[in-house]
Specification:
Length: 151
């Protein structure tokens, strides 16, 4: 009497290798996009901080008539958490009611330590943005500091 075994079915090694190759190709094509999106998401924190500090400066100008000096800005600015993408926030180029708020970054995904966003206030109370970030993560309202052209 002969014992019969049920027929076993499964994937061959070649089929598994083809599936792994396809997944690897898709992952390698999408990695730069994911990196860019992660960097843009982290920049939202910086833009929110900039908006908050623009409001603080506007209130200071309304109350005192002039753009705050560095020491005055240090008294009104918010403290940064250790996990923040923003390393420092300072004011520069103050003159009467004009000046700049400069946000310098910590190292993060697609962002190098020392890169910055600068928000400048003109005498008409308009704010403009410039930055040295890569063009592919530069916020829409910002101008590249290296070219001076809007992206």
């Amino acid at each position: 009497m002969q014992i019969s075994r049920p027929y076993l079915r499964g994937f061959t090694l070649l089929e598994l290798m083809v599936v792994i190759a396809i997944i690897s190709i898709l992952a390698s094509l999408s990695a730069p996009t994911f990196t860019r999106q992660i960097a843009k998401a982290k920049l939202i924190e910086a833009q929110n901080l900039a908006t908050q500090h623009q409001s603080l400066v506007e209130e200071f100008i309304l109350l005192n008539g002039d753009f705050p000096t560095s020491s005055e800005f240090d008294l009104i600015k918010s403290t940064l958490s250790e996990s923040s993408i923003v390393k420092s926030i300072i004011v520069e180029n103050q003159s009467d009611d004009t000046g700049d708020i400069k946000l310098t970054f910590n190292t993060s995904t697609a962002i190098t330590e020392g890169e910055f966003l600068t928000y400048s206030r003109d005498s008409n109370r308009n704010w403009s943005c410039s930055s040295d970030l890569d063009d592919n993560i530069l916020p829409n309202q910002c101008v590249s500091a290296s070219t001076g052209e809007e992206e």
